[in-house]
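Students often ask why we bother encoding 3D structure as a string. The short answer is that it lets us treat folding as translation between two languages. Here is a chain of 102 residues written in the first language.
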Amino acid sequence: MIHDEIFKPKFGADAANQLERLTHEMCYLFGRATRVVGICPPAYYADIVCTRARVHVGDILDRAELATVSSGQSGGGGSSRELQLARERRVHPNIADDMYYI
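And here it is in the second language, the structure alphabet:
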């Protein structure tokens, strides 16, 4: 059973309905759509951000995956130098404060 620490104290027995209402209203707030979307926008945004991250460091992740598969090791990653370089990559200052993934 899931313990509700957020909605239950404030809304009591109506907590599930309030959570459903909040989720429904959030579906009108997706930045890429002019109409309601069928999945709550935080899930869409998470998918977009993950895709964008794959674009930024995908080459390193792909090489690490290939190296792990070809060597038969598990839990490996790219070289520590490649991973360090990926961590040091920065978004251009002109778009640092924008949701450029939208």
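Translate back mentally: The chain has two domains: 1-38, 39-102. Keep this in mind for the problem set.
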